[in-house]
Amino acid sequence: MRVAVLNAGEGSDYLFGLIAGLAAQSDLDLEVVDSDATRGWFDRFPNVVHYPLRRSRQPEEHPLAKAWGILLYYLRLLSFALRSRASVFHIQWDNSFFLFDRTLLLAFYRMLGKKLVYTAHNVYKEERDGTGSRLRFAALRHCYRSVDAVVVHTSAMQQEICSRFGVHARNVHVIAHGINARVSVQGTARSPARTALGIPNDAKVILFFGYIDRYKGVDLLVEAFAQLAGMDTAYHLIIAGQPKRGESSVRPVRDEIDRLGLAHRVRLDARFIENEEVETYFTAADCLALPYTKIYQSGVIFLSYRFGLPIVATDTGSFRQDIVDARAGIVASERTPTGFADAIREFFAGDLYREAESTRMRIRSMAEERYSWTAIGAKTRALYDALVHLPER
């Protein structure tokens, strides 16, 4: 069987894990359509061909050059679809024009006789980001109801798509998000990691990692940290990640840190963190903070599990199911600065912190068992097999 995985230059860590899991199926031929940023990533897999049809994003690129690059990408994508012998197109992310992608582009793929799988990493991303509209909702509903199968990562996401978008449950398949397999683990010890980041070795270190954006609740975290810092001088906070919307995403955070007089206790690395740097941050920390205001599931959880780092999170999306049920952290009882500060204090007073070494070993072992890409690849392959035997609509 031949399958094309269409990624649109997003979620590269997830893409790598999925392809690694699928490539273990030796009789499955894979075509990966992505950007040039992942060139060379899949060379180790003999049954994978990579098509870098999209250019990497250039922040300072002129709008006309950017528009021309997007147009060329769509032309290449249409040409690829015409030539591809894949029987299944597995769409991981939308491209630049949601209305076209979710309607006409899907119709074009179906006209070519392709079975369509769509992974909903977020049930309704635009609503989460504050850009939802009737048109966006209608286009997404059309997408969910037009493809042959929708893949989600939790049962809560499955229930919402079925009830809110009118999709039959038999067409929505729960396949877990896998552990982050791309970030390298070199065995860095805590003390040198903290030295590299300028953090005292005896500090209580809280890490926020990932894109800095409105729904991530970084402002809530800073206010919670101010309460903690006023009670215990051992607390330190690291905020590491690229601002999603440029300086406008991080300026309020920086201003609030300065206003509260926390600059000497907060390390703010508002930039893209390179792959080889990631381990330093996760090894230096005692816990990962996820103060999100709205989300369905976060890939950062599975990066944290890679290093066995326990988590303190707000009670949103599937966090309670992913974290508490796995005994991998604490979920705050209230989505407020005080509620989140209380949850962090509870963490540092409990066994997850006191028995840090055994905690990390247990979380890593749990994640490798529950979120194996080999198992995810086998389950995804079974879905492809079922689809190719379905009659045409």
Note the main attributes of this structure:
393 residues, Rossmann fold, 2 domains, seven-stranded parallel beta sheet, 45% helix
Determine the mean pLDDT.
Answer: 92
Helix content: 40-55%
CATH class of the largest domain: Alpha Beta
The largest pleated sheet is described as:
7 strands, parallel
CATH fold-level assignment of the largest domain: Rossmann fold
Order of helices and strands: EHEEHEHEHHEHEHEHEHEHEHEHEHHHH
Overall shape: globular
What is Rg? 22 Å
> What is the CATH homologous superfamily assignment of the largest domain?
Glycogen Phosphorylase B
The domain tally reads 2
Based on helices, strands and strand pairing, what is the structural class? alpha/beta
Percentage of residues in strands: 15-25%
Strand order within the widest sheet?
A: 3-2-1-4-5-6-7
**Number of DSSP helices?**
16
Low-confidence stretches: none
CATH architecture of the largest domain: 3-Layer(aba) Sandwich
Number of strands: 13
Distance separating the two termini: 20 Å
Description:
The structure is a single chain. It contains 16 helices and 13 strands. α1 links the parallel β1 (2-6) and β2 (29-35). α3 (98-111) packs parallel to α5 (134-146), α8 (218-231) runs parallel beside α9 (247-259) and α8 crosses α13. It folds into 2 domains: 2-178 and 372-388, Rossmann fold (3-Layer(aba) Sandwich), CATH 3.40.50; 190-370, Glycogen Phosphorylase B (Rossmann fold), CATH 3.40.50. The strands form 2 sheets. The protein has a 7-stranded parallel beta sheet with strand order 3-2-1-4-5-6-7, sandwiched between helices. The chain has a 6-stranded parallel beta sheet with strand order 10-9-8-11-12-13, with helices on both faces. It has 393 residues and is α/β, with parallel strands linked by helices. It has helices at residues 12-23, 63-83, 98-111, 125-128, 134-146, 155-165, 190-197, 218-231, 247-259, 278-284, 299-306, 319-324, 337-348, 351-354, 356-370, 373-388; strands at residues 2-6, 29-35, 48-54, 88-91, 115-119, 149-152, 172-174, 204-209, 235-240, 266-269, 287-290, 311-313, 329-331. The protein starts with a strand and ends in a 5-residue tail after the last helix.
